[in-house]
Amino acid sequence: MKLPQTEPAPPDPRRPNPDGSARLNSAAIRRANTARIFHTLREHPGSSQRALGELTGLDAATISSIVTRLEVEGILQRAAPRRSGQAGRPESLLTIAQDAGLLIGAGLEPDGISLIAAGLDGTRRLSLDLPGADDPSRAIAALQQGVTELLMRCAMPLDKLRGIGIGIPGLLDARGHLVLAPNLGWRDLPLTAMLREAFTAPVQIDNDAKAAALAERIFGAVRGVGDFVFVYGNAGIGGGLYLGGRLYRGCDGLAGELGHMKIVPGGRRCGCGGLGCLEAYVSERALAARLAESGRALGDAAMVAAAAAQGDTVVLAVLEEAGAHLGAALANVVNMVNPRAVVLGGNLATLATWLVPAARRVLSVNGLPVMLEDAEVLVSPLGAEAVPMGGVALAMEMFQPRDQGLAT
Question: Which of 167, 298, 393, 403 has the fewest Cβ atoms within 10 Å of its own Cβ atom?
Fold first, then answer.
């Protein structure tokens, strides 16, 4: 199935008047148009201003004003004009400048911190892995150390660091307050405020699975797709609902906790304290515990995959069972939100060869046929870098030129 290419919905550029009617918010329009041009050039480098008009639908005056502002900021650069053989002055080609700045994405897990440095266009430059920390202050100090080291390795000064995005395995409300991160042992922390105090560059944090879902939308399996569900496995199971061209967050920003969908009433105890959650059956920790009960000491997904590839019947049976539970959860998700695709990431991608066949069988039986016609189960190509690349996507999503005072 070929997935349709759709553009994300732009921010609503309206705000209410005192009488309740809507009025145009020029700053929001300017930000939305700037973002549209920036991301269009990221996806279509070497476009002329005329081509930008065709791709974005914006008028020539708006494009010219925004392009000028981005050039002044040093974000865009012009290449030599292209000779087309047609009458008139040849148009110069625009690209995002490679030295315009750096974005850093990070993923925090109990056993480690992964960081990736990327250009403003999202092009990956360097990565760095550091030991994890169960104390928030030590984890932030490790992040500071990692950011400093990446800047040094990339030969970038601090003022060229345009943004930092961080994926956290926990529940974050709409204010960026950490409600609960059971796998880190953290609870009720003003984490966004702590991180913004630690760094001079803009910082954006999000749930790790939501961040990885953004990475899939921008860099991964569902580029341009407006409706998909991302299921991410690691120490726990997280999810991201990308619906109608944007991440769906719910009323408090907590939506998407697919790992805590109850699939076995009264079943295994989950890290959240509940019984029968999907996470208690298909997360890396859950699989390791289930295999240990059968005499197999396999601590991570790579070890489980190696044993499965060698035909270990005990491992294959456990993965078959886990795949069936995953399929039941996917059937509920597909029936509920009617996505174009379901993307599996993290340990679910590592073990996809053995999980997906059982999952698809259960999904085909329990999913509504009309829903299944358009929903495809895909495996993330981002591997272990899904969350830190999600951090890059978060940093890119909030990125705007510093000078917002020039009119468009």
Answer: 403
- Contact 206/394 with Cβ under 8 angstroms? yes
Number of structural domains (the chain) is 3
Contact of 162 with 392, CB cutoff 8 Å: no
Q: Do 95 and 77 form a contact (C-beta atoms < 8 A)?
A: yes
Which residue type occupies 166? I
Our CA dihedral for 40, 41, 46, 51, rounded to 10 degrees, sits at: 40
CB contact at 8 A, 35 and 55? no
Q: Structure pTM?
A: 0.84
Indicate if 274 and 202 belong to the same structural domain.
no
245's CB contacts (< 8 A; 6+ apart) are 6, 7, 8, 9, 226, 227
- Cβ atoms of 38 and 67 closer than 8 Å: no
Residue 307 dihedral angles phi and psi, to the nearest 5°:
-65, -40
Taking the alpha carbons of 368, 372, 385, 358 in that order, is the dihedral positive or negative?
A: positive
Instruction: Please say which residue of 96, 128, 153 terminates a domain.
Output: 96
Structural domain including 161 reads 102-213+388-398
Q: Which of 96, 127, 159 is the last residue of a domain?
A: 96
Mark whether 306 and 262 lie in a shared domain.
Answer: yes
